[in-house]
Specification:
heterotrimer; A alpha/beta (376); B mainly alpha (298); C mainly alpha (318); A: 376 residues; alpha/beta; Rossmann fold; seven-stranded mixed β-sheet; five-stranded parallel β-sheet; 12 helices; 45% helix; globular; B: 298 residues; mainly alpha; ABC transporter involved in vitamin B12 uptake, BtuC; two-stranded antiparallel ribbon; two-stranded antiparallel sheet; 11 helices
Chain lengths: 376, 298, 318
C-alpha cells in the first residue's frame, strides 16, 4: 500500500517536472490593465478576455506549437504604475502586451515597449499615441479625432444645438478628445459657450455645474470616463440643468447607468456599437464563451477591442510562421484583406492606427438599456 | 444671485457632511490628543457596511422604515468597530510616546482601507437610490430632497450632541476628561469609559456621514476615506481642535469655501486653495476660529 | 549595537556593492527602489527623528528633485548628471522657505501643514503649472545616464548611481552627528527650552534640518526619475509621505532601523507577489503591533540619542 502511494507520488512528481520543463516553450503575453482603481471594471474585463482567448488558443494547440502564458500587471490607471508595469513585463520576457485601457497608461509605457521591441496593442484613443512613430504600437480602437469629428457633426449639423458645453478631466484621453471636439464644433460654425475641466474622482461636480447652468446650455458633451460621467449626469439633473447630456466613448459602461440612477434616462452616449449589438458569429461566440466562463457580459467594447488586437498579432505570427515582431507588424500593415474580428474588420495603417470605424449615438432608456438614436 | 445661492446650498450640503465627520476627529483629539487617522476610513467603511445591510439584511427594501433601519444598524456596527479599534490599537499606547499612537492610527487606517478592498473588492460600488429624486426649484435655485435631508439630519444630530455634552452629567465628564485626564480620574470619572463613549459617538456620526456620501454621490470606493477624512480633519482644525461647536462651524465654512472657490475661482485648484487657507490660518491663528479646547499634553 | 555599527555597516556596504551581479533584471529594479527609498527615508529621519519635527510631506521634496531633473532633461536637454546640483538646490531652498514660517508650530499642526504642502504640490503638478510638468501624466522618456561620454543604459549603472547616493547620504548623516549643527539639533530635540537658554538659535537649526533633508530627498528624486525615465504626480502623493513617516518611526530613527523599515515596506511585498493585495493590510497590522511591542521603533536610536518624544512615558515599552 505504502509502496503504491510512493509510486503514485513519484509519478506525479515526474509529470509535474515534465510539465515544468514544457513551460520553457511558452509564448508570454503581458496584460497591462487597471485591475484595481477607478477603472477596475474595464481592467478586469481586459484581463478576463485575454485569459479566455489564451485558453481557447491553447486548447487548439497554441500558437505555432507554443502555449500562451498570460502575465498580468496592474497599472491602477496611473501613469507611474504603468511605467513600472512596462519595465516589469519586459523584464519577464513578454512578446506582446495587451492594454492598457487608458491612453495615459498606454502612453506612459510606450517607450519602454518600443525600446524592448515588444508589441503593444491598446484601446487608448488619444491621437498622441500614434504620433510618436513607435512601430511597436498598434491601436485596436479608433482615434479621438474620428470621434470628435463625428460628435461635432452630430451636435452642430444634425441636432443644431446653439449653446454647447464641453467638459473633460485632465487625462491625455479626455483632454485630447474634448479639445478635438471643441475645435471641430468651432470649425463647423458651432458655438461652445464653456469649456470646463473637472478633477477625476472628486465626486462633487456641483460647483462647476452651477456655473455651467448660468450659461444656459442646450447640450453638454462630457469627454471623460464613466466613473465621473455617471455622477456628473446625476448632479446635472439634480441642479435642474435641462441640457441634453452626451457622454464620450469612455462613458459606455454599465456603471454609468447605475451611477446616474434615475437620471440616466435620456442621456446620450457616443461610441462604436456595443458588444451585445455585434452581429458576426465570431463576436457572438466569444461573448457567449465569456458569459459562460465569468458569468457576466464583457463590461464594454473596449476589452473586446483589445482581444481583437491580440488576435491580430497571433494571426500575424501564424501567417509569418515565426515570432518576429517587426515582421508581424509589417504583415498587419500590408494585409490584402482585413481580418475578421469581434469588433468588426481589423486592419492597421502605417502609423499603427486601426482603419475604419463607425460611430453611433445611443439614448439611455428608462430600464437602463440603449436605443440607437443615430447611426453613422 | 441665483448662482451665489445655488453654491451656498451646495456648500452647506457638503459642509454638513464634513462637520459630521469632523466631530469624530475633534472629540478623539480633545480627550486623547491623538489624530485618529483611521476615522476617514471608518467613514468609507460605513458606506460599504450600509450597502451590504441594504442588500443582505433588508432585502433591498427601499421604504422609509428600511432606510431608518439601515442608518441605525450601520451606526451600531461602526460604533462596535470604533470601540474595538480603540481597544486594540490605541489603548495599549495610552502612555506610550505621542508618535507611536499616530503610527498606530496610520496602521489602523491601512488595515481598514485595505480590509474594505479585500471584502468588497477594488471596484467602485454603487449605492442604491434610496431617496427619491425630488427637486424643488426656487426661482432658479434647485434644492433636492437628499440635500434637505442631509442638512436637517446633520443639524439635528449636532444639536443633540451639543446639548448632550453641555447639559448632561456624562457630557460634563467628557469635557472634564478633555481638559485634564488625571484630574478627571481623581474626581472619580472613569476615563476609559469616556473614551469608549467618544469612539461610539464619533463612529456613529461618521457612519451617518458615510451613508450620506453613499446616498448623495452614489459611487463609493474603498480609498475614498482619506479624501473625506482629510477635509473633515481640516474642518476640525479650522474650528479649533477639541472644540465641538468649532467642528460644526469649521465643517460648514470649509464646505462653503470649497464650493465658492470651485465655483468662482477654479474647480481644479480647489484643493490647493483649501490647504493654503488652512496653512495661513495655522500660521496666523493656530488655535482655530473658536479656539482649541485641549490642554497641552506635556 | 556597537558591534552592529563596527561590522554591520561595512558588511552591508560590501554585500550591496556586489549585489546587482547576483540578481536578474526584475530584482535589480527592486534593489534600486530599495536604495532610493532608503535615501528618502534617511532624509526624513534627519527632520523627524534627528530633529523631532513632525514632517509628513517628505515626498514633496523627493518629487521636486525628480521633477527638476525631468524638466531640465526633457524641456531643456540637460544631461541627467548636469541636473543634479539644481535637483538638490531647488528642493533645499524650497525646504528652507516653507519651513521658515512653520517650524514653530506645535507637533500635530506641523504635521497637518506639511501634508497640506504636499497636496498643494501634487495639485500644482497635475494642473501643469507653467506648462512644463506634463499634467497628471507627468513626463516620460527621459535620457539615460551619460557620464564622460559613455551612455549607461543598463540597470546596473542606475543601481550604482543609487548606491553612491546612499553612501553619500550615510556619510552626511554620520558627519551631521559629530558636527555643530548636529549637536545643536540633538540638544534642541532633547530640551528646546534649555537649548535656547544656552544660546542655541533653535529656529535656524530647525530650518537647517529641513533644508538638508529636502536636498537629500531631491537627490534621491533624480535617481528615481533616471530609473523609470519618467515622473508623474501620484508617485509623490502625500500617501508616500505617510509611508516614509511611518518607516522612520516603525524602524526607530536609526540607520539599520530605517533601512529595515524600507525593506519591509518595499522589498518584502515583491517577494510575496501573489499576496500583493494583502500588502497594506498586513503592513497596517504590523505597524500597530510594532508600536505596541516596541513604541520606540524596532531598532531604536542608540542609548543617549533617543529623541525625547520617543522616550516619553519611560517605563512602558521595550
Amino acid at each position: 500500500m505504502k509502496r503504491t502511494l510512493r509510486n503514485i507520488l513519484l509519478t506525479l512528481c515526474a509529470i509535474s517536472l515534465m510539465a515544468g520543463l514544457s513551460w520553457a516553450e511558452t509564448l508570454k503575453v503581458g496584460v497591462q490593465a487597471p485591475i484595481t482603481g477607478s477603472y477596475a471594471n474595464e481592467g478586469q474585463g481586459i484581463e478576463n478576455g485575454v485569459r479566455l482567448l489564451a485558453a481557447q488558443v491553447n486548447a487548439k494547440g497554441g500558437v505555432l506549437g507554443q502555449q500562451i502564458e498570460v502575465i498580468a500587471c496592474d497599472d491602477q490607471g496611473t501613469a507611474m504604475a504603468a511605467a513600472i508595469c512596462a519595465k516589469d513585463l519586459v523584464n519577464k520576457g513578454v512578446k506582446m502586451v495587451i492594454g492598457s485601457y487608458t491612453s495615459t497608461c498606454a502612453e506612459a509605457a510606450q517607450k519602454t515597449y518600443f525600446n524592448a521591441g515588444v508589441l503593444q496593442t491598446s484601446d487608448g484613443t488619444a491621437d498622441s499615441l500614434t504620433e510618436k512613430g513607435y512601430w511597436t504600437f498598434l491601436r485596436n480602437s479608433f482615434p479621438n479625432s474620428a470621434e470628435a469629428e463625428f460628435a461635432a457633426e452630430y451636435l452642430v449639423n444634425v441636432k443644431k444645438y446653439q449653446r454647447i458645453v464641453v467638459i473633460s478631466d485632465f487625462s491625455t484621453y479626455a483632454d485630447g478628445l474634448a479639445n478635438a471636439t471643441e475645435a471641430a464644433i468651432k470649425a463647423k460654425g458651432g458655438n461652445v459657450v464653456s469649456r470646463d475641466k473637472i478633477k477625476a474622482d472628486s465626486q462633487n461636480f456641483t460647483p462647476v455645474l452651477t456655473n455651467i447652468k448660468s450659461k444656459n446650455p442646450d447640450a453638454i458633451f462630457f469627454a471623460g470616463y464613466y466613473s465621473d460621467g455617471g455622477q456628473l449626469r446625476a448632479q446635472q439633473v439634480a441642479l435642474g440643468i435641462k441640457a441634453d447630456f452626451y457622454g464620450g466613448d469612455a462613458n459606455d459602461n454599465p456603471d454609468f447607468v447605475k451611477l446616474a440612477g434615475s437620471a440616466a434616462q435620456g442621456a446620450f452616449i457616443i461610441n462604436v456599437p456595443e458588444p451585445a449589438a455585434l452581429p458576426t458569429p465570431i463576436a457572438k461566440n466569444f461573448i457567449a464563451d465569456y458569459q459562460t466562463k465569468y458569468g457576466e457580459m464583457p463590461p464594454s467594447i473596449w476589452g473586446l477591442m483589445n482581444i481583437d488586437g491580440m488576435r491580430a498579432i497571433i494571426h500575424a505570427y501564424e501567417q509569418n510562421g515565426n515570432f518576429d515582431n517587426k515582421k508581424a507588424v509589417e504583415y498587419l500593415q500590408n494585409m490584402s484583406a482585413p481580418l475578421e474580428g469581434i469588433t468588426g474588420s481589423i486592419a492597421f495603417a502605417k502609423d499603427g492606427n486601426r482603419i475604419g470605424g463607425a460611430y453611433v449615438v445611443k439614448r439611455i432608456q428608462a430600464d437602463g438599456s440603449y436605443a440607437n438614436e443615430y447611426v453613422q | 444671485m441665483d448662482i451665489f445661492l445655488q453654491q451656498l446650498a451646495n456648500g452647506l450640503t457638503i459642509g454638513s457632511m464634513f462637520a459630521l465627520v469632523a466631530l469624530g476627529y475633534t472629540m478623539v483629539y480633545g480627550v486623547m490628543k491623538l489624530i485618529n487617522f483611521a476615522h476617514g476610513d471608518m467613514v468609507a467603511a460605513s458606506a460599504f457596511v450600509g450597502l451590504t445591510i441594504y442588500t443582505q439584511v433588508m432585502g433591498q427594501a427601499t421604504s422609509l422604515l428600511a432606510v431608518i433601519v439601515i442608518f441605525l444598524l450601520t451606526a451600531l456596527t461602526m460604533a462596535c468597530v470604533g470601540v474595538i479599534l480603540e481597544r486594540l490599537a490605541y489603548r495599549p499606547l495610552r502612555n506610550a510616546p505621542r508618535l507611536s499612537a499616530v503610527v498606530s492610527a496610520l496602521g489602523a487606517s491601512l488595515v481598514i482601507q485595505n480590509g474594505i478592498m479585500l471584502v468588497w473588492g477594488p471596484r467602485m460600488r454603487i449605492f442604491p437610490e434610496l431617496v427619491p429624486q425630488v427637486y424643488w426649484d426656487f426661482n432658479g435655485v434647485v434644492i433636492s430632497m437628499i440635500q434637505v435631508i442631509i442638512l436637517v439630519l446633520s443639524l439635528v444630530l449636532m444639536l443633540a450632541l451639543y446639548l448632550f455634552v453641555e447639559k448632561t452629567r456624562v457630557g460634563a465628564a467628557v469635557r472634564a476628561a478633555s481638559i485634564d485626564q488625571d484630574a478627571a480620574r481623581l474626581m472619580g470619572i472613569n476615563v476609559n469609559s469616556i473614551i469608549a463613549l467618544i469612539f461610539i459617538i464619533g463612529s456613529s456620526l461618521g457612519a451617518v456621514g458615510g451613508l450620506f456620501i453613499g446616498l448623495y454621490y452614489r459611487g463609493i470606493t474603498f480609498n475614498m476615506g482619506w479624501q473625506y477624512g482629510l477635509y473633515a480633519f481640516i474642518a476640525a482644525i479650522l474650528g479649533g481642535i477639541g472644540n465641538i461647536p468649532g467642528a460644526m462651524i469649521g465643517g460648514m465654512l470649509l464646505g462653503l469655501f470649497n464650493a465658492f472657490i470651485a465655483g468662482y475661482v477654479s474647480s481644479t485648484w480647489a484643493d490647493a486653495f483649501t490647504f493654503i487657507l488652512l496653512i495661513l490660518i495655522l500660521i496666523v491663528r493656530p488655535t482655530g476660529i473658536l479656539g482649541e479646547r485641549v490642554a497641552e499634553k506635556v | 549595537m556597537n558591534n552592529l555599527n563596527r561590522f554591520g555597516l561595512p558588511v552591508f556596504i560590501l554585500v550591496m556593492a556586489v549585489l546587482p551581479y547576483t540578481l536578474n533584471e526584475r530584482w535589480q529594479a527592486v534593489a534600486i527602489t530599495f536604495l532610493v527609498f532608503s535615501v528618502v527615508a534617511l532624509s526624513q529621519d534627519i527632520v523627524l527623528g534627528k530633529s523631532g519635527m513632525f514632517n509628513m510631506g517628505q515626498a514633496l521634496f523627493f518629487g521636486m528633485g525628480a521633477y527638476t531633473t525631468a524638466i531640465l532633461n526633457n524641456h531643456f536637454g540637460w544631461p541627467i548628471v548636469a541636473t543634479i546640483p539644481l535637483a538638490i538646490l531647488i528642493p533645499a531652498i524650497f525646504g528652507i522657505l516653507l519651513a521658515g514660517p512653520i517650524v514653530h508650530l506645535r507637533g500635530d499642526y506641523l504635521l497637518v501643514v506639511t501634508i497640506g504642502f504636499n497636496i498643494v504640490f501634487v495639485q500644482v503638478l497635475q494642473n501643469n503649472l507653467g506648462g512644463v510638468t506634463g499634467g497628471p501624466n507627468g513626463i516620460f522618456g527621459l535620457d539615460s545616464l551619460k557620464i564622460l561620454g559613455a551612455n549607461l543604459t543598463s540597470q546596473i549603472a542606475v543601481y550604482y548611481f543609487a548606491f553612491v547616493v546612499l553612501l553619500l547620504t550615510l556619510w552626511v548623516m554620520s558627519n551631521l552627528e559629530k558636527s555643530k549643527p548636529g549637536r545643536a539639533l540633538h540638544y534642541l530635540r532633547e530640551d528646546q527650552l534649555a537649548a535656547e537658554s544656552i544660546g542655541i538659535n533653535t529656529r535656524v537649526y530647525k530650518i537647517f534640518a529641513f533644508g538638508l533633508g529636502a536636498g537629500i530627498a531631491g537627490l534621491a528624486g533624480t535617481v528615481f526619475a533616471t530609473q523609470y525615465a519618467a515622473v508623474s504626480p501620484e508617485a509623490f502623493d502625500f500617501i508616500q509621505s505617510v509611508l516614509f513617516f511611518s518607516i522612520v518611526l516603525v524602524g526607530g530613527s536609526s540607520i539599520p532601523g530605517v533601512m529595515l523599515g524600507v525593506f519591509v515596506m518595499f522589498v518584502v511585498p515583491e517577494i510575496f507577489r501573489e499576496f500583493a493585495t494583502w500588502r497594506y493590510f498586513v503592513f497596517g497590522f504590523a505597524m500597530i503591533l510594532a508600536m505596541i511591542l516596541r513604541p520606540r521603533g524596532i531598532v531604536p536610536a542608540t542609548f543617549g540619542k533617543i529623541p525625547k518624544f520617543l522616550i516619553k512615558g519611560g517605563s512602558h515599552g521595550a
